């Protein structure tokens, strides 16, 4: 019995990531960078996102097929070569050089797994809010 409750506690502490998808509204609205926003109702079927107190969006969860991974990309220090071996032509003996033709390297690291995508559309009518509330109570 103790093992069951312990595993139940672990499930409650597990983090869940959701991708916010704005493809459905990208051509309809211009979202200013660093605009304040309020995202409410994440635990409902249709969360509401209000951006800059002007743009109102309603979301709908979509389950992913399989697991989606979210990555971060960062710069990596360039590969440095040490000149070694005796040579009369080796003017850089014991020096380190970087190949100027080498493309900048990127490091990609996974930061999260997600199973849901929250797709948004414009909230044009207040009836959409009523529909979202009705779905929550069902």
UniProtKB/TrEMBL annotation:
<dbReference type="GO" id="GO:0006383">
    <property type="term" value="P:transcription by RNA polymerase III"/>
</dbReference>
<feature type="domain" description="Transcription factor TFIIIC triple barrel">
    <location>
        <begin position="13"/>
        <end position="121"/>
    </location>
</feature>
<protein>
    <submittedName>
        <fullName>General transcription factor 3C polypeptide 6 like</fullName>
    </submittedName>
</protein>
<dbReference type="InterPro" id="IPR042771">
    <property type="entry name" value="GTF3C6-like"/>
</dbReference>
<dbReference type="GO" id="GO:0000127">
    <property type="term" value="C:transcription factor TFIIIC complex"/>
</dbReference>
<dbReference type="InterPro" id="IPR019481">
    <property type="entry name" value="TFIIIC_triple_barrel"/>
</dbReference>
<dbReference type="Pfam" id="PF10419">
    <property type="entry name" value="TFIIIC_sub6"/>
</dbReference>
